[in-house]
């Protein structure tokens, strides 16, 4: 009977563990009810994320359904697993969180990944002084002057994209636009971020591996979300062989480039060089070079020489970034840029193919600019103002990242309400739903670029494809330039029309980012005969 007793004890232990897990996961499910916040009923164990994690609906569509459910509310509550999250609808509240009261909502994550993690030094995951210091220094990496220097490299990648599509135009073969921007975006990342020559074996190998690891990279991006909700279990995913191969390849690739750069005095105009140059500056956390000098000069005269040296050593400047930090930052640019630019280009081509009159306007503007400047260059691209409007309208309709998060840093009373957010409360801003709100944009389903006339990508509480405030996407100007070059080059050489294979209306895949469920297919026709 010993075996019977063992089974009984095992069963009791399993039930006890399940009961403890259930109590732990559901104990917070009354959080919003107690505080009088309207919310949807959560269910064990995923809270309100069950249908998304089961592949039934996209996060964008889920949030939009919730957004409409609480039509007359300024905010409402949901649960990510057992974590209560406040979702904002009111424009003034969104402006407060992202801009006016930024000090109270300056972090995007509650739990930073461990230092050994590949996401540890991602700008979205670091907090406090280190984020402020790094952000301030990296802002210059995407200045107008830097982008001007990178423009020719991006234009060369655009020419490569045109050549890539030439066979499709000649044979009138259909093309899945979700995919055509992938190689282009990888070449831009390779040249502007990693500093690889735009032509040659190295860039081809880089693109080949990026394509080979496409699925694994998407899973790796999911790990970043796990760090937000279940940080204790996120590290487990790195033991999956397919994910480990992705991480190892790009770690080794980046470290190899760093070693080459550190062995030469030559400088390149790319993001990696800017990160390396930060280590040439003497920076210490919380203590600048001048502050260190002042501290030493003002030491009391009765302090011994030994104590002075000890004090000096304690404030001695250190390299701001380790090679691991740089690798982490580079990897995150790679992983986050993997799909976002390609998806944006694909949806833009879909919008132009679906609206031939808008396509003609874009082509006419490009032709006029070419007649004036003789070619596409940095100055010519800045004259494509209607194309700017088209890009803004397309990113409004289908922004790649349908939400952004903030973490409350201290007790915060929601203006004109009795709700006081506790320190550590997560706040979600449903970007896609805000963009599709008829109170913000009349007839939001209609593609109307004139909504953004003279806007020039100015973010506001009602237009947030790149975020807003101090935490706005640091590389958004580079992203816009990449998209603009791709569309300008394609519209200069081709016209596009929807193929009957495209499912209408386009539906989103059940993911945390926006991507078409069944693909978007178009026909390319050469404009030059």
List the helices and strands and how they pair.
Blueprint: H1 2-26, H2 31-34, H3 50-53, H4 59-69, E1 75-80, E2 83-88, H5 91-100, H6 128-138, H7 144-171, E3 174-176, H8 177-192, H9 201-212, H10 214-229, H11 231-234, H12 241-262, H13 271-278, H14 289-297, H15 305-314, H16 323-354, H17 356-373, H18 378-382, H19 385-397, E4 404-407, E5 412-413, E6 420-421, E7 426-429, H20 431-435, H21 476-493, E8 494-498, E9 521-526
Parallel strand pairs: 2-7
Antiparallel strand pairs: 1-2, 3-9, 4-7, 5-6, 8-9
Helix pairs in contact: 7-8, 7-21, 8-9, 8-16, 10-12, 10-16, 12-16, 16-19, 16-21, 17-19
Question: What does it look like?
Answer:
- With 529 residues, this protein is α+β, with helices and mostly antiparallel strands.
- Helix content is 53%, strand content 7%.
- It contains 21 helices and nine strands.
- The strands form three sheets. It has a four-stranded mixed β-sheet with strand order 1-2-7-4. It has a three-stranded antiparallel β-sheet with strand order 3-9-8. Strands 5-6 form a two-stranded antiparallel ribbon.
- A hairpin with a 6-residue loop joins β5 (412-413) and β6 (420-421).
- The longest helix is centred in the middle third of the chain and has 32 residues, at 323-354.
- The radius of gyration is 26 Å and the shape is globular.
